[in-house]
Design goal:
about 120 residues, four-stranded mixed sheet, about 40% strand, globular, Fosfomycin_Res_Enzymes, Glyas_Bleomycin-R_OHBP_Dase, metal-binding, VOC_core
Length: about 120
């Protein structure tokens, strides 16, 4: 189980972002899908007991500088997922690249088709 209950992400055009998230979210651990009017949800397991990532349409949505970051198990996993986001239509992709703090931090930064900022990273323990 993920350490959060759920995320409700707003987008301007649900149908425009659906192929992107339908490709990415199962790779991040959300393999089950539920669609409703103006929204779709990708879940870890059965609702409502499992974490889920919701994408909801809001025609007035304006992306901001908020970023959602997903943890990966290795640098190789970040690189593999970076290829998926490229093929799924991510924008403004930066990386994957290593940043050295007190340990290795390997990340790719990108935007979904609605302009929301996302990241996939691995941090060495």
């Amino acid at each position: 189980m993920f350490p959060f209950g759920h995320i409700d992400l707003r987008v301007r055009d649900l149908e425009a972002v659906y192929p992107f998230y339908a490709r990415l979210l199962p790779e991040l651990g959300f393999p089950h899908e539920w669609r409703g009017e103006g929204a779709f949800f990708m879940t870890e397991g059965k609702l409502p007991n499992q974490s889920w990532f919701g994408v909801l349409e809001d025609k007035d949505h304006v992306p901001n500088k908020t970023r959602i970051a997903f943890a990966a198990q290795s640098c190789q996993e970040v690189d593999r997922l970076a290829e998926i986001i490229r093929s799924a239509g991510a924008g403004n992709i930066e990386g994957p690249e290593d940043m050295t703090y007190s340990r290795i931090y390997h990340a790719v930064y990108f935007e979904d088709p609605s302009g929301n900022r996302l990241e996939i990273y691995y941090c060495e323990e």
